[in-house]
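Incident log entry.

Two folding requests arrived from the same account within the same minute. Monitoring flagged them as a possible duplicate submission, but the sequences differ. Recording both here for audit purposes.

Request one:
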Amino acid sequence: MAEKVCQKPDAHFGMINLRKRKNGCMQNVKEKNITCKVKLAEGSSKPKRSRKDIQQNQNKKDGPAALDDEELLKRFSIRKEQLKRSLVAGSTQVFRKLCDSFERSRDSTKADAMSKYLRFKFEFFGIQTPQRREIYKPLWKEIKLLNSSDLRTLVCEAWYSPEREFQQFAVDLFEKEYLRIYSDDRLSTEKYATSTLDFARQFLACSKSWWDTVDPLAYKVVGPLVKKYPEHLLPVMDRWNVSEITWLVRTSIIYQLGYEKETDAQRLFRYCLKVAHEDEFFIQKAIGWALRQHCRVDEKSVKVFVEKHKKTLSALSVREALKHVK
C-alpha cells in the first residue's frame, strides 16, 4: 500500500509534514529542525496535545514556573518533614541564636543577685525565668525539626556553657523533647529507655548539678520516663536510691512528685527509710518534700508512716512532711 503524504496548516505548528504510517497511529512530525513523534487521535489528522505539552509551551512564553513544596515532594519522593529539615540549620545555629539572644538581655545587677542565691556556684546573664523562656520561645519551631542526634548535641552545647541560663534552657529542652532524644536510633524498647535515662543521668549527677536543675529533671523527665517504662527503669531507681551520689538519691525520692494518686507509696516509704540516716541536707529535704506531696492525696498513710518512724527520720524530714497537716 502506498504511503500518503500531505501538507496542512496548523495553528500551533505552522506547516507540518505528516507522513502517515501503514497502521495509521504514528506519524513523523517535522517542523523546522525539530523531529518528534506524536500520536494522532482516532479519526483526526491533528496531533492530540497532552496537558504536559500545553504547560511546557506556556512555560516557554511565561518562563519556567516555580516549583512548590508539593511538586518537590512528588518529584523526589521525600517526606515533608525531611524537606523542612533541609531548609533549617542544625543545632549549632540554633545555639548561636540562643547565645545572641541571651547576650543582648544581659543584666549585670540581676546576675550578681542570682549568683549569690545559688551560693556563687554559677555565672549568670541575669535573666529571670519568665523572660528567659520568652527569649527562646521563637526557637521551638526550629528545635522541633532537629533529629535525635542534633537534639543531644544542642543539650550538651547548652549544658557545658558557663552561664546558668544555658543549663536551665537545657532542662526545659529536655522536658519538652526527652522522648525524641533517641527516637531516631532504632533501639529496642529497653535500650531506648535506659539510654534516655543514662543521658539524663550525666546532667543529674556528673557536672553542674544543683537543686535548681536536678529537681525539674527528676520529676519532669525521670518521673515520666519511669512511669512509661517501669519494667526497665524501676530497677535503676532502686540502684540510685543507694547511690553514693547525693543527687541520684534525691532523684530516686522525688521522681514521683507528679504521680499524685498513682504514686507507689510503698516504694516511696521504702526509699525514704533506706536513706533516713543520712545527714545530707538535700536528702533530708527531699524526704520531707516527697512525703508532703503524697500527703495531698493520702494524708492518713503519710501520718501513720511518719509517726511510726519518727525516731528514724530527721527532724527536718518530719517537719517538712507534716507541714500542711492540721
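Request two (distinct sequence, not a duplicate):
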Amino acid sequence: MNHADTVQLMYIAYYGRPADAEGLEFWAQELENVDGNIEALIDAFGDSVEYTERYGDLNNEALITGIYQQLFNRDPDEGGLKFYTQLLDEGAQSLSSIAIDVLNGSTGEDEIIIDNKLTVAKAFTGMIAINNVPYQSEELINSAKDLLSQVDATEAQVESIVKQVFSLLGSIVNIPIDHGDIDVDIDFDFDINSADIITDCFSSDNRVSISLIGTDDTTVECPGAEIGLV
C-alpha cells in the first residue's frame, strides 16, 4: 500500500472522514520521511483541534466504539471493546494507535468495507482538490462523514456513494463540478473500479481525461461527454 492510501485510511479510522488534499500530502510526506513507519507519527496525527472538539468529551468505551463504527459500521465485539478500552484506560496505547491496530486487524467483510471506504474517500479527496473546494465547513465535513458511513461491502453501494459525492459538491458548496473545460451533468451512470488523487485534467472536444495516480483505466459515461479516468 502506498503512503497516500495509508494516510487516507488513518483519516477514515480516526476522524471518520476523507482526507483534505493538503493534509493528505503533508502526512504522506511525513510517512515517507520515517520510511513508512506509521507508529513514528501516529500520535502526532491524532493530536489535533478536530479530535478535541469532536471527541474530547467521550469516555473511552465510546471512543473505541466510534473507531469500529467509522471503520466497519458496527459496534465492537465484547472482547475487543474490553481489550482496547483497558489499553486506553491504562495509557498503554493512544486512541490513534488503537485505531491503526483495529484497522490492520480487519478481515472478511470488514476488510471489504474498508477497501470500499478507501475508494470513496480517494474519489472525494480528488474531486475537492481538482475543483478547489474549501473543505473546512462543518456542513461539508459532516456530509462527507455521513457518506462514508453508508459505504458497505457491495460494489453497487460504492457506485451509488460516488454519485452522491458529485451531488454533494454541487449542492452544499454550490459551485459547478468542473472536469477540465466543461461541466457535466452530475446525474449519470458511474462505473468505477478504483480512484486516487486527481493530479491533472484536460479536455479535447467532448472528451475529458483525468489523470489519477495508480489507477486502472475507467470510463464514465455522461450525457454529452465521456470522461476517461486514466
